[in-house]
Design a protein that fits this description.
CATH architecture of chain A: Orthogonal Bundle
Strand order of the largest sheet of chain A: 1-2
Strand order of the largest sheet of chain B: 2-1-3-13-6
CATH class of chain A: Mainly Alpha
Shape of chain B: globular
Distance between the termini of chain A: 40 Å
CATH architecture of the largest domain in chain B: 3-Layer(aba) Sandwich
Oligomer: heterodimer
CATH superfamily of chain A: MetI-like
Order of helices and strands of chain A: HHEEHHHHHHHHHHHHH
Largest sheet of chain A: 2 strands, antiparallel
Number of helices of chain A: 15
Shape of chain A: flat
Strand content of chain A: under 5%
Number of strands of chain B: 13
Helix content of chain B: 40-55%
Strand content of chain B: 15-25%
Distance between the termini of chain B: 61 Å
Number of helices of chain B: 17
Order of helices and strands of chain B: HEHEHEHHEEEEHHEHEEHHEHEEHHHHHH
Number of domains of chain B: 2
Number of domains of chain A: 1
């Protein structure tokens, strides 16, 4: 093969992957940004560019600010609770105990099950009249009357959000726990030996040895969770549909609702979502000084 | 560490690309209707009127399609059945993605006619004059009829006679004050006094029934008047009913279907319903036919003289260019025997003149049919699709928050999308 051609040989290997990323990742982003500057009605017909009108209208929607604030709360609460619980779970699953292999397999279930299915199961379990959670609470005497306001957890925006966050944590736990567990298994035993020779208690050892060495694993797990949870759709869509009104909508739900009447404005909501995720990720990366973690 | 991470990232990218490819493959499979070997395939998208697998609408349509395909071997019909709750959105998604159906049966929106996506009724039916004239305006855009009524219904107030007797109520409520008093009495028994479905499934119907009670409505002389004093008074009354605890909790989050089922189980005193509630009551088996009845809906000072008449329409989409085949199919499907079969199956009313004549002496359907011609209908302008979606999502807040300010917000949205 002539030397000149050989220089392009890597393209053969890189080309398909690059093309794929270009077509399925970058191109949609371009179209999304383009649509956000176009006037597109509910039927999907493009009626020309209209500058920043979509953004302008979007920020004049009375609900959009509360939706954005709610989205941030949703992401922060769900991700931090998930990571905290996963740290504990991973530690448990790292111990040797009989049946550990089966227990580790069982942990996959919430992850393997369709999120929509999990959301529906919780929705039915919370039914104010016949939901199993309410029936149990009623039998225990905690809930005075079935079918009452108190039993309708998904009807009240605050309790509905709390329940949906719990479901979101439930479905995020397996992945996060596995990521941290993998990190734990990568920590060599001699580090702990050295620490105990130096007189470290087990708690001190956890803070001084385990956590710092787990940072790369926690970093990756948190990042992927932030992106997932931010765009999380099925849980809220199935359990409350974002209602009453938009009082339990996050920005993703709101974007889907907007798409029914105004595709252009919905696209501008998508762009803002996209930018928000990037900003959150950048802030997170810079505060955790990820380069030092990863390059070490 | 660095090398490991990059290889992990590369693995991730490969996985993601594989997933994306799989997704892309799914996306391209939906293209459907093309003429192959002289055969045309029609894509028929219908709403599901059934209460379960036993009487799903796909069965009803399968009967027609089988007979039709025998008579017209050159045309195949693929039926897609969609639950009512998702119908508008799924059809709209097909249209936004330019994967046009040929025929839909469910909601019709004039904005599709405005965008030139529909065939006029005269092009796809041999005798459009046989469609009930009462619903012609609603399906008409710019003087041409596009929406073809396929089935109709009117609304009445259903109440549970057993619960009423237990609560010591002698007769059906005729005014809002009586509704309030009766609902309170039924609630004392530990059941739901009035079932008020203001969740997104059909909030636009429930709301209109109350607006009519004080002489209000969505429009006056073709202009939106959602925040009119009459409508505000209706929702102020409802808010009182809700905060007294005489409805199910949080009506803004409750859909029609589950509430109808609850009524059928005998746990609700009163609820507004259409004839479609009857099969649900029968299949639940908790109420005998003497345990419930239906009466004209109560208004502020007396029962409504005109009720809400709803028709579900057939729309014929033009982008696939199957006008001749659609006409063959619709002429076939609109035969009286299929109209009547539909009404028997779902307790709804026919939408053609000839089928109505055949039913006019029926003891159950007769009265509903005579009420149809002067019934109130939904707005027919091109902004209705948007306004309706917004009403469905937010009007429930008018009974938990401030009725006036919620209705004012809806009015602003309606006037800005109508302009």
């Amino acid at each position: 093969m002539p030397a000149a051609l050989r220089r392009f040989a890597p393209l053969l290997w890189l080309g398909p992957a690059v093309a794929l990323i270009g077509v399925v990742v970058l191109w949609p982003v371009v179209v999304m940004v383009q649509s956000s500057f176009q006037r597109i009605g509910g039927e999907g017909f493009v009626a020309g560019y209209d500058g920043i009108d979509n953004y302008d209208n979007l920020f004049h929607e009375p609900d959009v600010v509360s939706v954005l604030v709610r989205t941030l709360v949703w992401v922060v609460v769900v991700v931090s609770v998930t990571v905290l619980i996963s740290l504990g779970l991973a530690q448990l699953f790292h111990q040797k105990f009989p049946g550990r292999r089966i227990a580790r397999w069982a942990l996959i279930i919430p992850w393997a099950a369709s999120v929509m299915m999990s959301a529906l199961i919780f929705k039915w379990a919370l039914d104010p009249n016949v939901g199993v959670i309410n029936v149990i609470l009623h039998d225990l005497g905690i809930l005075k009357q079935l079918g009452s306001n108190q039993a309708d957890a998904l009807g009240n925006p605050t309790s509905a959000l709390a329940w949906m966050m719990a479901v979101a944590v439930f479905v995020s736990l397996p992945f996060t726990t596995y990521a941290i567990l993998a990190g734990l298994q990568g920590i060599p035993d001699d580090v702990y030996e050295a620490a105990s020779i130096d007189g470290a208690t087990s708690w001190r050892g956890y803070l001084g040895v385990t956590l710092p060495l787990l940072r790369p694993a926690i970093l990756v797990a948190t990042l992927i969770n932030v992106i997932n949870v931010f765009n999380s759709f099925p849980i809220i869509w199935e359990m409350t549909g974002g209602g009453p009104g938009y009082e339990t909508s996050t920005s993703t739900i709101y974007m889907v609702d907007l798409k029914e009447s105004d595709v252009g404005q919905s696209a501008s909501m998508s762009v803002i979502n996209f930018l928000l995720v990037i900003v959150i990720v950048l802030i997170y990366l810079s505060t955790t000084r990820w380069k030092e973690q990863v390059d070490r | 560490m660095k090398k490991k991470l990059t290889s992990r990232i590369a693995g991730g990218v490969a996985l993601a690309s594989a997933a994306a490819l799989a997704l892309a493959a799914c996306g391209s499979s939906g293209s459907g209707s093309s003429a192959a070997g002289g055969t045309t395939t029609l894509k028929l998208v219908v709403a599901d009127y059934g209460t379960g697998p036993a009487n799903t609408s796909s069965k009803y349509w399968a009967t027609i399609v089988t007979a039709f395909e025998k008579a017209y071997p050159n045309v195949k019909v693929n039926v897609t059945t969609i639950a009512w709750t998702n119908f508008d959105q799924e059809v709209q998604t097909m249209i936004q993605n330019k994967q046009y159906p040929d025929i839909t049966e469910g909601d019709y929106f004039s904005n599709y006619a405005q965008d030139g996506l529909l065939y006029p009724a005269s092009g796809v039916l041999s005798d459009p004059g046989n469609l009930l004239p009462a619903f012609k305006t609603q399906g008409t855009y710019n003087g041409t009829q596009y929406g073809m009524p396929f089935t109709t219904s009117s609304r009445t107030l259903f109440y549970n006679k057993k619960l009423f007797a237990q609560a010591g109520i002698a007769s059906a409520p005729q005014t809002w004050a009586e509704v309030e008093a009766d609902a309170a009495k039924v609630t004392k028994l530990g059941d739901v006094g009035f079932g008020l479905p203001l969740g997104s499934e059909e909030a636009q119907a429930e709301s209109l029934l109350w607006m009519l009670g004080d002489g209000g409505g969505y429009q006056t002389a073709g202009k939106y008047t959602i925040d009119s004093p009459a409508n505000v008074s209706a929702f102020t009354f409802l808010k009182g009913l809700v905060s007294a605890g005489d409805t199910e909790p949080n009506p803004g989050t409750v859909d029609r279907t589950p509430l109808w089922e609850q009524f059928a189980q005998g746990k609700i005193g009163m609820i507004n319903g259409s004839p479609a509630l009857i099969p649900i009551i029968q299949s639940a088996g908790d109420l005998t036919s003497s345990d419930w009845t239906s009466v004209p809906i109560a208004g502020k000072n007396g029962p409504l003289a005109t009720t809400l008449g709803v028709c579900d329409n057939v729309s014929a989409f033009s982008p696939n260019g199957h006008e001749a085949q659609i006409k063959e199919f619709l002429n076939f499907a609109y035969q009286d025997k299929y109209q009547l079969a539909f009404d028997r199956e779902y307790d709804l009313l026919p939408a053609t003149v000839t089928a109505s004549k055949a039913l006019s002496s029926d003891p159950v359907f007769g009265p509903f049919l005579t009420a149809l011609p002067n019934s109130v209908q939904y707005p027919s302008d091109t902004s209705w699709a948007t306004v309706k979606a917004k009403i469905q999502q937010t009007i429930g807040l008018a009974v938990s928050g401030s009725p006036a300010s919620e209705l004012t917000q809806l009015q602003q949205i309606a006037t800005s999308s109508a302009s």
